Amino acid sequence: MNANTSKYAQLIKAEAQRLGFLSCGISQAGFLEEEAPRLERWLQNGYHGQMQYMENHFDKRLNPTLLVDDAKSVISLLLNYYPEEQQNPESYKISKYAYGQDYHFVIKEKLRALLHYIQTEIGEVGGRAFVDSAPVLDKAWAAKSGLGWIGKNSNLLTQQVGSFYFIAELIVDLELEYDNPTTDHCGTCTACLDACPTQAIVAPYVVDGSKCISYFTIELKENIPNDMKGKFDDWMFGCDVCQDVCPWNRFSKPHREPLWQPHPDLLSMTKKDWDEITEDTFRKVFKNSAVKRTQYRGLQRNIAFLK
């Protein structure tokens, strides 16, 4: 490594902070040896349900050099989404990450700005930005970069701020100084396993995605299986239970991203309001939201299932 690797890494981390990212860690791009057998087992067990896309690009998921020519570094970034105010507790619930504007667009803009900064300050650097939309094992890279550890609920956890944040990456062909992984601080705690309404966490660190409320309410396109009736704990889009009960999340602090302020109606809506929601109201409340992914019909299906 040349003397500049450390200087460049510091520059990038300082700019990431200026752009509003919670933290930034860097690891060497290469094949994820430990993840390969784990991903293979997970797929063989059918834990991806109907998320067929999880089977695609197996090699690319494990090797960023197949996504970016001559990739040298994976820059992992966290962006907080923990809201200051939450929904009316008597209402049907949506996952906190979907309160504001769709995170893909908000984060993509910040990543573009960071890549532009790198190219301006450092020179000709090739790279790509990724936000949960390409075959990148973002939690594995974030853990490798020392940003947290993968907890028993399979989310990335951080002692200082818990887990209510998005993970994104820049994969670049620039050599940098690399960070070391942190240690696991789940200890003997089983709060997430005990609290999961559908027992989707089948063993510590193993989630059967096809049993997760988020899967049923967002990914599944057909009818929700009847044997899940009464187990959804009023979640109509996504689910935060395994994060809400995690002791590390008592350190969550509200985000400062204006685009993630919820539509004012969202927080006050009651079950009756949701039962009677029209397509116009759906469009207004979720104008640029990730909830649009399930569409009006999908949300209606989920609400009907909760009754």
TrEMBL record:
Residue sites binding [4Fe-4S] cluster 2 per the record: 196, 212, 239, 242
Catalytic residue positions: 132 (proton donor)
SUPFAM superfamilies from the UniProt entry: alpha-helical ferredoxin (SSF46548)
Subcellular location as annotated: Cytoplasm
Alphabetized InterPro entries for the sequence: 4Fe4S_Fe-S-bd, 4Fe4S_Fe_S_CS, QueG, QueG_DUF1730
Listed GO MF terms: epoxyqueuosine reductase activity
Cofactor note: Binds 2 [4Fe-4S] clusters per monomer.
Residues at which [4Fe-4S] cluster 1 binds: 186, 189, 192, 246
Cited PROSITE patterns: 4FE4S_FER_1 (PS00198), 4FE4S_FER_2 (PS51379)
Known function: Catalyzes the conversion of epoxyqueuosine (oQ) to queuosine (Q), which is a hypermodified base found in the wobble positions of tRNA(Asp), tRNA(Asn), tRNA(His) and tRNA(Tyr).
Record-stated family: Belongs to the QueG family.
Subunit structure: Monomer.
PANTHER family: EPOXYQUEUOSINE REDUCTASE
Name by which UniProt lists this protein: Epoxyqueuosine reductase
Originating organism: Flavobacterium sedimenticola
